[in-house]
Amino acid sequence: MKFLCIQRDCPDGLLSKTKFLEVYSTFFPTGNPDKFCNHVFRSFDGDNSGKIDFKEFLLAINITSGGDPKSKLNWAFTMYDIDGNGTIEKDEMVEIIGVSLIIVLFWKLENFKIQYMY
Ligand SMILES: [Ca+2]
After folding, report:
1. Separation of 97 CA from ligand 1 center, angstroms?
2. Cα of 74 to ligand 1 centre, how many Å?
3. Torsion (CA) 7, 13, 14, 20 in degrees, nearest 10
4. Disulfide-capable partner of 28 in 9, 33, 97, 118 (CB 3.0 to 4.6 Å)?
5. Which letter, b or e, does each residue of 36-60 get, where b requires 16 or more Cβ atoms within 10 Å of its Cβ?
6. What pLDDT score was predicted for residue 86?
7. Which residues crowd ion ligand 1, with CB under 5 Å?
8. 40 C-alpha vs ligand 1 centroid, how far in Å?
9. Residue 37's pLDDT band (boundaries 50, 70, 90)?
């Protein structure tokens, strides 16, 4: 399993979408996580620069690993509001729930296979 090494993988201190997808894919190797990854990356890339800087990275870690409910809700809203117009349309809801379900399904399938292999 590959982990992110900031000095080695992000020498300029910025995490690119390609590197993010590469690391993310090691955790979810099946189920084509590209679409889901793109939405997660977009919601973390606060200034829409195409790269996640250290401040955005720390904010993402803080929110997803124990942030207060309001921060988590704001982050989730950003992820669902794909076009950033301030409202979540039905198509956006369907898109995010769809890609999330695929990731969860493949993750559960992988765990099921691993559990019954040993
Ligand atoms: Ca929207």
Report:
1. 14
2. 14
3. 20
4. 33
5. bbebbbbbbbeeeeebbbeebbebb
6. 95
7. 81, 83, 85
8. 15
9. confident
